[in-house]
User: What shape does this take?
Amino acid sequence: MNDLLSIPYLFVIADPEGTVIDYCGTELLKGYFERNQMKIGTSSAMNKAGLNAIALSMENQSVSVVIGAEHSNKLFAELSCVCTPIRINHVIIGYLSLCFHYVHEVTFVLPLIEHLAKNIEDKLPQKDPMLQKELTYSLFDQYELTNREKEIAYEWLENKNVPEIADIYGISQSTVRTFIKKIYAKTRVNHKGAFLRKFT
Assistant: This one.
């Protein structure tokens, strides 16, 4: 990243609740961050830390920019911070923020941070099948699927057929078909193609 950014910078990764889970950057800003008691586990949520890019991004669920004295915490009055949500399957799984001295223009950072977030969104599920399953279940929650419906819907998305799903869960094929009809009704689709398009 040092090749790309010739200015002091700090990347901060926060979980969906705005808690810092990691950070990296130039020694100058890492040191500043640490000297001011900002560390892994620190909350950036609005109710804990006031106005900051992560809190604003959480509130707006979009890219947010906070420049200099706009920060509630005056320790960040000399920084500009840009934050974007990280989404997988339309579910926010965290936030990526980039901070740097406020004298530098923020416009160059917007495409950079969006590009980095997109890379994370594209690569993370491929590396962690359990995360993919968890995120898919989160999507199913929006349609109020029962636990059993989620299990069957997930197997259906994994392209398992009715006999395979019946064997996995020790239920009859007609029960699997009944579950699939209920899943289609709840998710407002009427065939497998539409179901796959909606959730993949």
Notes: The longest strand covers residues 91-101. The radius of gyration is 21 Å. The chain has nine helices and five strands.
